[in-house]
Specification:
The protein is built from 25 helices and 9 strands. α9 packs parallel to α12 and α14 packs parallel to α16. The chain is elongated.
């Protein structure tokens, strides 16, 4: 039987759905023909049904005479099936097949004796965004008009068109047989696997298993289901909650964009949920059990309608705070903290940041205290990064900071004191000035860490060199790291004649040190990289506006060698020591106001 195939059936999945239905009907008719020819059904193998996949629902809730289930997974699959059923019912009615029409209607509409009316007559109620279009199609399909960009009416029209063509291809005198086959196939041979959750089940794990090869449903989607379920029981206006609260925050595709954290890429919504749960629980949370952890918190706190409302609005408000971290005013100290956080690849700080921002919003701490806490945390991270210390205890440390803040009258001060306690801890050590300075002076910087981190150090030095009298500039993201004495130095930067072998070794140990590094533009780097100092110094003086290079040119008018690297390293290291103070620095004594 010839069938129309839509232009992009794989995009909307309607084409494959219809193919599965029509092919199953064909197989059923062929099977019935074989049974009739054999005159003994036992001699013919049973027909294999077609499985459309799994649908996951929560345990039933009684509403009047009707038991309802929240659909956890399979919403699109069920909606597609319902639209097909109403189209099939309409086709049966138009072709004078009332029995088949009545049989199909039972699959998408409640029986009249249930006393349901309006949208409650439907066996499926989509989310608010699709409710109006869905109800219009299901209540009066004859008047449905296809609306541009509206998927519900387009899907119904697609199925109605396919069924119309299917009927036109039925052989003369065979209509009764084909319509009966359609009904039998829908009832007996097109199957969905129903998974009903029980207490203790992990919906997120079930989701990830069922959707491994398809579009992954996120834990935030499970949280939404739970939030709206709790809101309905608390008699909160669901439409207002959806339009003005939930969708106003989470409808943005930004939340589903995958971003890298550590070795993995995850959607932002998942990362936010993980950080929020960590902050709420004051404990580490597994990325594979986010929904279960949310349920724990919800079950502990949602005991009254007021508590339900507070939890929902706190969650959405914190999501707004998390989103704001990515759009802070450029140049502010808060913006600088998150800019450097990215270079440090330290996503673990988000639970602490969420807590600090809430304290500030609630006037528990002022902005000076907020910034001091951020700077202390940044210093702990940067000093450990420079010394290449392990990041293994970071999750544990963030939990300890949260726990200290939770019970303190001055949370910012308590957080800083907890960080300062790591000055003598071998696992969570906050390095002191002497150790930090020695490493900056004697160890290679370039090659020992990623270039984005080296740039972060050099940009911090540039910022420290600037004063209120200096013009304000925005550093280009594409500034490159330049070796003053080039890495390939043999031709243009030869050692003095007669230099001993240890001079070559000394140059090798100095090439990647802090004092031999600066920032320049890509074009200047390309044209100037291996030039001798006289040419390089002139190019820097002519083209660079950075204080970093102005000081380099001024301090070394005639030559630049290993001794120059040592001298410059001392000056630059001192600026980094000032930028990220040690645990016992007096800077960490903060006052409110």
């Amino acid at each position: 039987m010839w069938r129309h195939v839509p232009d992009n059936p794989e995009d909307d999945r309607l084409g494959p759905f219809w193919d599965d239905v029509s092919q199953t009907v064909d197989r059923y008719l062929e099977h019935q023909t074989l049974i009739a020819a054999a005159q003994d059904p036992d001699k013919i193998a049973p027909m294999t049904p077609h499985f459309f996949g799994a649908v996951v629902v929560d345990k039933p809730v009684r509403e009047g005479k009707i038991h309802t289930h929240e659909v956890i997974d399979g919403q699109q699959r069920l909606t597609t099936a319902q639209l097909f059923l109403v189209a099939a019912t309409q086709i049966c009615e138009e072709h004078d097949r009332p029995n088949q029409a009545a049989g199909l209607r039972k699959l998408w509409a409640q029986d009249d004796h249930r006393g349901a009316s309006g949208a409650d007559r439907l066996k499926l109620r989509p989310t608010r965004a699709d409710q109006a279009a869905f109800s219009s199609v299901m209540s009066d399909p004859k008047t449905v008009k296809v609306m541009a960009g509206e998927k519900i009416s387009s899907a119904y029209h697609f199925f109605y068109t396919q069924l119309t063509e299917w009927v036109s291809d039925i052989p003369v005198g065979e209509h009764g047989r084909y319509f009966e086959a359609l009904e039998d196939v829908v009832y007996e041979h097109l199957l969905l696997v129903l998974i009903e959750l029980e207490p203790g089940d992990n919906p997120q794990g079930i989701f990830e298993s069922l959707n491994a090869q398809g579009e992954k449903l996120l834990a935030i989607d499970l949280v939404k289901n739970q939030v709206f379920r709790s809101a309905r029981r608390a008699e909160i206006d669901l439409e207002d909650l959806d339009i003005n609260v939930w969708s106003a925050r989470f409808a943005d595709e930004w939340w589903r964009d995958p971003v890298r954290q550590g070795r993995y890429r995850r959607p932002r919504a998942e990362l936010f949920l993980m950080h929020w749960l960590t902050e709420q629980a004051n404990a580490e949370v597994s990325a594979t059990g986010l929904y279960v952890e949310f349920l724990k918190i919800a079950n502990q706190t949602v005991q009254t309608p007021v508590a339900t409302s507070e939890l929902i609005f706190r969650f959405v408000a914190d999501a707004g705070t998390y989103q704001s971290f990515h759009d802070l005013p450029a140049g502010s100290r808060e913006w600088l903290f998150f800019n450097r956080r990215e270079a440090l690849d330290a996503g673990v700080v988000y639970p602490v940041a969420l807590r600090l921002w809430r304290y500030h919003a609630d006037s528990v701490i002022d902005r000076q205290q907020l910034v001091a806490a951020l700077r202390a945390l940044e210093s702990w991270l940067v000093r450990r990064m420079v010394l290449r210390l392990t990041t293994k205890p970071y999750n544990k440390v963030m939990v300890e900071l949260l726990q200290k803040m939770a019970s303190a009258s001055n949370p910012a001060e308590a957080m800083i004191e907890q960080l300062r306690s790591y000055a003598s801890d071998s696992q969570t050590w906050w390095p002191d000035d002497a150790t930090f300075r020695t490493h900056l002076l004697t160890q290679p910087i370039y090659g020992a860490m990623t270039q984005i981190r080296v740039r972060m150090l050099l940009e911090a030095i540039e910022a420290r060199m600037r004063t209120t009298k200096t013009e304000s500039i925005t550093l280009q993201q594409k500034l490159t790291i330049e070796h003053v004495i080039p890495q390939s130095w043999e031709t243009t930067w030869p050692l003095p004649e007669g230099s001993a072998d240890d001079a070559v070794a000394r140059r090798g140990t100095h090439l990647h040190r802090l004092g031999n590094l600066t920032l320049i533009t890509g074009p200047l780097n390309a044209s100037n990289s291996n030039n001798p100092w006289t040419d390089k110094r002139e190019a820097l003086a002519d083209h660079s506006v950075l204080r970093l290079n102005n000081r380099l040119v001024t301090d070394h008018p005639a030559s630049f060698d290993e001794d120059s690297i040592d001298t410059r390293s001392e000056a630059l290291a001192e600026l980094l020591v000032e930028e990220w103070p040690a645990p016992h620095s007096a800077e960490w004594t903060i006052q409110s106001g």
